[in-house]
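re: ur msg from earlier - yeah i can do the magnesium ion complex, just paste it... oh wait u already did. ok heres what im feeding in:
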Amino acid sequence: MKTIDTASILSQFKITGSVKEVKPLGQGLINDTYRVITEADSDPDYVLQRINNAVFQDVELLQHNIEVVTAHIRNKLEAIHADDIDRRVLTFVQTHDGKTYYRDKDGRYWRVMVFIADSVTHQAVTPHSAYDAGKAFGHFEQMLVDVPERLGETIPDFHNMELRLRQLREAVAADAGGRLHEVSDLVGLIVCDAQEMCQAEHLYREGRLPKRICHCDTKVNNMLFDHEGRVLCVIDLDTVMPSFIFSDYGDFLRTGANMTTEDDADLTHVGFDMEIFKTFTTGYLESTREFLTPIEVEHLPFAVALFPYMQCVRFLTDYINGDTYYKTNYPSHNLDRARNQWTLYRAVCDQKTAMTDFIRTVL
Ligand code: GN1
Ligand code: MG
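and the outut:
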């Protein structure tokens, strides 16, 4: 990788103070993120991020969405006189020509946010933090139900199951990585359930399911907590776009309620934690019950199954393509991820009735 002249990039932005150190931050699979530490305590630290424009091809639209959403949330927080607003919503730093991103001479895109002081991220959830996360991601959606303009999709059809299956079929047909013979069993299993897993797209076409502004990457590590364990703020806003609320609800449980990490190759570790399901669902419904429609509520258990299924399809597609999308650490990494997600999907399917019953009792 080419060395990055962070000083020259940072000089494009209206940051205050002088930079002491720039070091890598976080574990995202898509963007490259750095923490920028400034000399004086009176100056904030910053987060410098290279936007992966192979994944997010319309950076202008992406940053526009983020500007609209953060401004909308800030207005709402101001209206209720919330305290500590700068730690409850992200602040993007402008460039000297008034943009929230900078394109360097090599065509790479950069942006800078204020680092939220005294905040931590968690990689795993507890029943307690899952409740808080449910409330916070639900509240995030609730604050955005009345965004005054139509936002674009930063990755078109990002969580469209029909598209993801089409991409799998194309990968299978091309077999670019020469790996199809290793995975035909899993491809077969996926195909068997394909029809059922495309329900949301059907309902949408029939006009029975709305799209709303969703976060679309609701992992616990995409929220900041204070040192007392309270949620401060939802971060990683690249995928904020119109989607089915299933995205936020289902994708959180995909990582949060899996009893192990999404790439654990020992499938005996994979399982669906009903305790996490219950607390997350309780928090989520507290924030969203006012605006969710009966069809949305009824399909929440479907959403819990949809996301491991979809992520299995996405990892498997990338494996067959020869690992062109996700960062991998070893050759079978994407395949291990795909088998892990399939195992989780099966575990979730076994709990469908229990999930439906629980949601009924909450409501
Ligand atoms: C990617 O970079 P990260 O970890 O936030 C991906 C998600 C996947 C996830 C799987 C834009 O998110 O959709 O669920 O990896 N984001 C994009 O770990 O594709
Ligand atoms: Mg992330």
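cool cool. The radius of gyration is 21 Å. ping me if u need the other ligands too
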